[in-house]
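Lecture notes, unit on protein representations.

Consider one protein chain, 281 amino acids long.
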Amino acid sequence: MNMWLCLFNMRHLYKYLNVNSALSMMRERNLQFTNPLYFNDPFDSHPDLFDFGVPDGYRLGWAPKSFIKNKAKLDSENNRQRVWISCLSKRNDSMLMWSYYTNHRGVCIGLNEDALKKDLCHLGLCLLCEDVKYRNIREKPNGIRNVDLFYQFFTKGEEWQHEQEVRFAIIDPHPSIPYRVMRPTKRNEIIPWTEVRLYPRLSSNCFQSIYLGERVTDADKLSILRCVKAFLPDVKVFQMIADNTTFSFVEEPLDVDKFLSEHPVTFKLNIKTKLHKLMKM
């Protein structure tokens, strides 16, 4: 597979988010990319995924073995700092994913993989896209002959297998991509580039469905549906309901227009509150 070539497959991928993050993603129609140094898996994209022993018969030339080994390991670490990754799932009904990403009170956004690839490639980004491979990290390939970027960025331990993850990776992103720093900063502070989160813009064609957590509050539900109505009116919305016969969820379709029409008082009060705050400014 050519690592600069994205193959197009018709399937939906899913992003689990808390309510505020979901509202931001829907309003701005973007997708967050993060440097793997800030992922919750310390092994993610780590140089130690490789064996940097110099193979027998490898042509050393003038360089000693220690130089070749250290250079290969440094190259791998540099690659880790050059990549920004967005993590999606092939599942929208994972009990564990709903639990530790949203506490069942958040949102799962369904995205069209085809449209995602087209949008990101049209932005001129150096894009890799692949399903994550789950394996034992002790099965290390040699990193001297070839540092395989797909292996480095798309490999995780078997303990993460329940995520069924699919990744989009951007190599050397251009600083023109919208970005944010996810912590308070001091005046004139120099921010490491790896701390920046990137948010390339997407077309509305990328957004296919919205799933509300089983424990989403009424207030959050209203905010989400108003956002869908305003920014993604063609997207289908579902409420996740606990099945009464199995340990699983059932997707119940939601009529956005009907729900909003049944909550006019709350809707009007929210508008009045916002107008009142604006008048005070």
